[in-house]
Amino acid sequence: MCGMKGNCLWIFHSQAMRLKPPIPTCALNQIHAHLLKTHKPPLTFNAVLPSLSPQDAVLLYNQMVLHPTSHNHFTFTQALIASSLLQALHKTLEIHAHVIKSGHYSDIFIQNTLLHSYVVKNNIVFAKMVFKSISSPDVVSWTSIISGLSKCGFHEEAIGKFLCMDVKPNTSTLVSVVSACCGLRAVRFGKAIHGYSLRSLDGVNIILDNALLDFYVKCGNLASAKFLFMKMSWRDVISWTTMVGGLAQGGLCEEAVEVFQAMVNGGEAVPNEVTFVNVLSACSSLGALSLGQWVHSYISTRHDLVVDGNLGNALINMYSKCSDICMAVQVFNELTHKDIISWSTIIGGMAMNGHGMHALQLFSLMLVHGVSPDDVTFIGLLSACSHAGLVKQGLIFFKAMNDVYGIAPQMKHYACMVDMYGRAGLLEEAEAFIRGMPMEADGPIWGALLNACKVHGNEKMFVQIYHSLCSAKGVSIGTLALLSNTYASCNKWDDANNVRDMMRDLGLKKMPGYSWIEVDAMVNGCDGVNRSFAYAGKS
Q1: Phi-psi bin for 160: left (phi > 0), alpha (psi -120 to 50), beta?
Q2: Do residues 330 and 355 make contact, with C-beta atoms less than 8 angstroms apart?
Q3: How far apart (Å, rounded) are the C-alpha atoms in residues 56 and 43?
Q4: Buried/exposed code over 498-512 (b: 16+ C-beta within 10 A; e: otherwise)
Q5: Where are the beta strands (DSSP E) in 338-478?
Q6: How far apart are the C-alpha atoms of 186 and 215, rounded to whole Å?
Q7: How far is CA 136 from CA 115, 142, 144, 159, 168, in A?
C-alpha cells in the first residue's frame, strides 16, 4: 500500500510541476535573501517546491543546497522529480552526489526516486547500481527496476527480478512483467501472471487488463484475447483499439470491423485516431469500400480529429486498395503535411490501380517537394512500371535505388523486376536477372516467373522452374498449385501429379477460395464450400 502511495505522490507532484508557470525572478531573489538571513530549515520552501515548474524547482534547489541547514530529504526528492521532468541527466547525477554527501542516501523514498529518475532516462546501468545499493527494496523499488529492464529490452532479466521478489507485487509490477513476457513472446509465463492476478488481486484494474490484452494480441493468441475482452467488466478506448488492431493484424478483418461497429453503437468508449487507423486497415484488407466510406463519414463528424498524418495515410491506403483512386487522390491533396508514407501510399495506389504514368509523375512531384524516397516508394514505382510495361524506366529506377539513393534492393524489389520482365514477355531476361541476383531467389520470385510462363505459353522453362522451386525457400502452396495446374493445362498429367504428390508429402493443402461482397454496408463472405457469413455489427 505504501508503494502505491509513493507512486501516486510522484505522479501528482510531477504533473503539478508540469502545469505550474515559472515564478517571477524577484520571488526567487526574496527566497535567496531569506536563506542568507536565517540558518533554520525553511519548511515552507519545501512545501513550495512541488507547486513550482521543473525549471523553478531546480533553481530553488540550487539556492537551498548552498545552505546546509536549509534542506532535508524532501528537498532532494522534489529536485530529483524536477530533473527527471527536464530530462537533465547531469543534474540528476549532481543531486545523487549531494544526497550521498549529505547522508540522506539511506532514505528509501530518495532511493526510489533516484531509481525512477534513471529508469525514465533509460540509464539502466545506473538504475541497477541504485537498486543494488538498496538494503531492503520495497514494491516500488522492485517495480521500477523490472519496468526499466523491460523498457530497455532486457526482458529475461526483468522476469528474473520478478521471480526474486521478496515482497508482494502490485498491479504496476504485474504490468511491467507482462510487458517483458510480451517482448519474449512467453505465452505460458504470461498466462501464469494472468492467473496470479486473478487469484491475488482484488477489484478491477483496467491498466493490467489492457496490458494482458495487448500481450495476448502480440503473441498471436487471439482466442485468449477475445475471451479476456468479453470478460472485462469495463473497457476503455485502449481495450477496444487493441482488440480491433489485433483482429485486423491477425487476419480476422471481418471480426475487427464487427468489434468497431459494436464500439460505436454501444457507446462504451469513443474511438480515437489509432482505432480508426486499425479499422481502416481491416477495411483495406477486405476491400470493403462502403464500410471504409462509412468510417470516413464518421471521422468527418468528429471535430476533435484532423485528417492528417497516420489517419490521412490510412484513408489513402483504404481508398487505393478498394479501387477508389479518385477519393485517394482527394484525401492526399487535402493533407496539410505529406510525409514519405503519404507519397509512397499514393504512388503504390496509382500502381495497383493501373495508373503507372501517374505514379511516375507523382514521384517527380515528390522530389520537387524535397521528400526523399525509401524502399517502399521504390516498390510502388517498380510495380507501376511493371503494370504499365515501362521496362526501361523500371531498370533506371532499380539502378537508381542503390547508385543515387543508397537503398539496397530487397527480395520484394527483385520480385517486382521479375514480374516486370514477365509481363513484358521477356522471359529469358527474367531468368537471367534471377541467376544474377546477389542472393538466392525465394519462392515468390520463381512463382512470378512461372506465372509469366503460363501467360505467354512458354513450356520450355517449366522443368527449370520446377527444379528451382524444389530447392527455393518460402515456396507457398499457391505457387505449387499454380505449377501443377500449369502442367495440367499443357496435358502433362504425370508432372502435374508429381507436384501434387510433393505437396501431400510436405503436408501442404490448398485453402479454398474466399470472397467478400458488400450488401447494405455489411460484409458477406463466401468460400469454396458454399458457407456464408454476415457481419452486421453489434447493437
Answers
A1: alpha
A2: no
A3: 17
A4: ebbebbeeeeeeeee
A5: none
A6: 9
A7: 14, 10, 14, 19, 13
pLDDT at 3: 44
The C-alpha cell at 160 is 528474473
Per the listing, cell 505457387 goes with: 479
Q: Quote the cell numbers at residue 5.
A: 502511495
H-helix or E-strand spanning residue 525: strand 522-527
- For residue 398, give the C-alpha cell: 532499380
Residue 534 backbone dihedrals phi, psi, to 5 degrees? -120, 135
In the block, cell 530529483 appears at 80
Record the cell numbers describing residue 336, joined without a space: 496539410
Residue 54 grid coordinates: 521543473
pLDDT in tens, 346-380: 999 999 999 999 999 999 999 999 999 999 999 99
CA gap 425, 456 in Å, rounded: 7
Query: What pLDDT does residue 249 have?
Result: 93
CB-based contacts of 335-339 (< 8 A; 24+ apart in sequence): 335/307, 335/308, 336/306, 336/308, 337/308, 337/309, 338/369, 338/371, 339/309, 339/313, 339/371
- What pTM, to 2 d.p., does this model score? 0.78
**E strand residue ranges, 381-519:** 514-519
Count CB neighbours of 432 within 10 A: 11
At residue 535 the predicted structure's pLDDT band, cuts being 50, 70 and 90, is: very low
What gap in Å lies between CA 119 and CA 146, rounded to an integer? 10
SS (H, E, C) 332-349: HHHCCCCCHHHHHHHHHH
CA end-to-end span of the chain? 41
pLDDT in tens, 500-530: 777 776 665 655 555 555 555 555 554 433 3
